[in-house]
Amino acid sequence: MKYKTLGKTGIQVSELCFGTMSFGGNADRETSKQLFHRCLDKGINFFDSANVYSGGVAEEILGELIAGKRDEVVITSKAGFPSGTDLNARGSSRRHLFLAVEQSLKRLKTDRIEFYFIHRFDSLTSIEETVRALDDLRRQGKILYPAVSNWAAWQIAKALGVSAKECLSGFELIQPMYNLVKRQAEVEILPLAESEKLGVISYSPLGGGLLTGKYGIGKRPETGRLVEQNNYTKRYENETYYAIADRFSAYASERGIHPATLAVAWVLSHPAITAPIIGARSVEQLEPSLAAVDLEFTEEWRKEITALSIDPPLATDRSEEAAN
User: Fold this and answer.
1) What angle do CA 232, 234, 238 make, to 5 degrees?
2) The domain 3-209+263-298: what is its CATH number?
3) Active site residues
4) pLDDT (average), residues 3-12
5) Where in the chain are the domains?
């Protein structure tokens, strides 16, 4: 396992981050424990969570697992998606963020969260309100660095501008979706991260299982996120994605490499990526993703694999000037 400096923070994190979304859901407490310790054995020191994962149970389990080794790991959590039935139990208002942080700290059994994400953009709350609330939480020591997930590049850039203008703590880490079939982040988000020296932990490197060799044109397993969870079914309903998955699986097979290993390695090879977030329901399912750090991935492979996909449109319509 290699370690990278996360953005401008000086914090050293493993080149893979483990996402705990399965904790308390598809992975019971014992399986979660096995997954956590397998990650530690591999050298992972970076764990991502959220207040809504398994209704808060994922944070509780992670809190139990980091006990006794809290200072050896870097953890994240998030707020933004509805965490209860109350109308205000969501969003990025000062009220909600202050309540959500306290609840997460209790579940995680810790006094601070290294990176605290706004989970999604809240059109009802001003960016100024949100960044000031995050700065206040940082000053209180409850979070160390503000972070953001699922925001557009313009929203992130605006927030960074507001933070700089008002002398507030700016985002230091972002979390976009990024995989071989979902490459929108390449257009503006990843260039923004490189320009502003932001850390990036991207999620869904396997496309919800699409890039594991189980899916293709006319090919569907009986179980899995893409067939069991409606949001994933909709996210990857485009048949073009399945054609890409077929080509990618064939490419991996020709080289005798598990598709999941190659998919994670491809994401990791992007220069803006600090660490892809990997996840699993079992240790057996986790192993191919862990193997990505041991793969001697080449620039030629990246170009060949990228060519199996479809380039996203440029940020402007002046495509004829792209090569200039």
Assistant:
1) 110
2) 3.20.20.100
3) 53
4) 98
5) 3-209+263-298
